[in-house]
TrEMBL record:
<dbReference type="InterPro" id="IPR000182">
    <property type="entry name" value="GNAT_dom"/>
</dbReference>
<feature type="domain" description="N-acetyltransferase">
    <location>
        <begin position="42"/>
        <end position="128"/>
    </location>
</feature>
<dbReference type="InterPro" id="IPR045057">
    <property type="entry name" value="Gcn5-rel_NAT"/>
</dbReference>
<feature type="compositionally biased region" description="Basic and acidic residues">
    <location>
        <begin position="140"/>
        <end position="151"/>
    </location>
</feature>
<dbReference type="Pfam" id="PF14542">
    <property type="entry name" value="Acetyltransf_CG"/>
</dbReference>
<dbReference type="InterPro" id="IPR016181">
    <property type="entry name" value="Acyl_CoA_acyltransferase"/>
</dbReference>
<protein>
    <submittedName>
        <fullName>N-acetyltransferase</fullName>
    </submittedName>
</protein>
<dbReference type="GO" id="GO:0016747">
    <property type="term" value="F:acyltransferase activity, transferring groups other than amino-acyl groups"/>
</dbReference>
<feature type="region of interest" description="Disordered">
    <location>
        <begin position="128"/>
        <end position="151"/>
    </location>
</feature>
<feature type="domain" description="N-acetyltransferase">
    <location>
        <begin position="8"/>
        <end position="144"/>
    </location>
</feature>
<keyword id="KW-0808">Transferase</keyword>
<dbReference type="InterPro" id="IPR031165">
    <property type="entry name" value="GNAT_YJDJ"/>
</dbReference>
Length: 151
């Protein structure tokens, strides 16, 4: 599995990105349900990763470590055959929503996650000001190529 690189055009749901904080269970839970595409997002706490699973196969992950009251996000990766389907976005959203629900701040070392947070400003408050990580969130307006779907 190769690490996901930022840059491709993203399509995200406005409702999913902004109005569903806390819809995922706290970080210690293992399953986050099945999406309409057959994609399952689960928290593999043993391996420290949110995993995207299609037909029983792990096709992507967001790695993390727990440090006191923080979640340290280390990387995002999606199998090349499954890129461009929004899987990385779903994984990042699950990880960030889970941190919010658990009352944890986020330390980020992943450039893709930094771009995601920049494009979804409501998540900026999760970034720990004392320990922001090595992939700083760009101080810019959300990208214009992100389509916010209000449906």
């Amino acid at each position: 599995m190769q690490r996901y690189r930022s840059g491709p055009r993203l399509r995200v749901s406005w409702a999913a990105a902004y109005s569903d904080f806390g819809r995922y269970s706290p970080i210690r839970d293992e399953r986050y349900g099945t999406l309409s595409t057959g994609l399952q997002i689960r928290n593999n706490a043993t391996d420290g990763a949110f995993e995207a699973v299609i037909d029983g196969e792990v096709v992507g992950r967001v790695g993390y470590r727990l440090r006191q009251e923080r979640v340290v996000l280390t990387h995002t990766e999606v199998d090349e055959a499954h890129r461009g389907k929004g899987i990385a976005n779903q994984l990042v959203q699950a990880a960030l929503d889970d941190a919010f629900a658990a009352g944890r701040s986020v330390t980020n070392f992943c450039p893709f996650i930094a771009d995601y947070i920049a494009d979804h400003p409501s998540y900026r408050t999760l970034v720990d000001p004392e320990h922001p990580g090595g992939a700083a969130v760009p101080d810019r307006a959300p990208r214009s190529d992100v389509v916010h779907d209000a449906s």
